[in-house]
């Protein structure tokens, strides 16, 4: 009969490090960066996530928050654009606002895959593609 796994008691400094890790993970979305800031190894953290459901839930929440912020920033960049300076012969002429259409298309594919996704697409020979649209 297998013996039950012994759970070690977590002391206060270790709990503080786990909290620091989750806070940095929430802010950045980077496990490596958050682990370094907390002073813990990534292997330890991944093991802890497998064995501790409460920590795993905190990890999932932190990642969801980070991904949400990343999505918001991508939407802002695709809709509002990014400003940059325009120079000619070393002199600043004006400011240019650039929009990232590719980023906008990827966001549309993410949220409305039925409309903007690639399923079906333009696969096949030209004759097969035209046949799908009822043309010869």
Explain the overall architecture.
- With 136 residues, the protein is mainly alpha-helical.
- It folds into two domains: 12-99; 101-136, no CATH class.
- The chain is 62% helix and 11% strand.
- It contains seven helices and two strands.
- The chain has helices spanning 12-28, 31-38, 42-51, 53-80, 101-111, 113-116, 126-132; strands spanning 82-88, 91-98.
- A two-stranded antiparallel ribbon has the order 1-2.
- A hairpin with a 2-residue loop joins strand 1 (82-88) and strand 2 (91-98).
- Helix 1 runs parallel beside helix 4 and helix 3 (42-51) packs across helix 4.
Characteristic key phrases:
136 residues; mainly alpha; two-stranded antiparallel ribbon; 2 strands; 62% helix; 11% strand
Structural class, by secondary structure, is: mainly alpha
Overall 3D form: flat
**Total count of helical runs of at least 4 residues:** 7
Q: Major sheet, described briefly?
A: 2 strands, antiparallel
Q: Can you summarize this structure?
A:
This protein has 136 residues and is mainly alpha-helical. It has helices spanning 12-28, 31-38, 42-51, 53-80, 101-111, 113-116, 126-132, and strands at 82-88, 91-98.
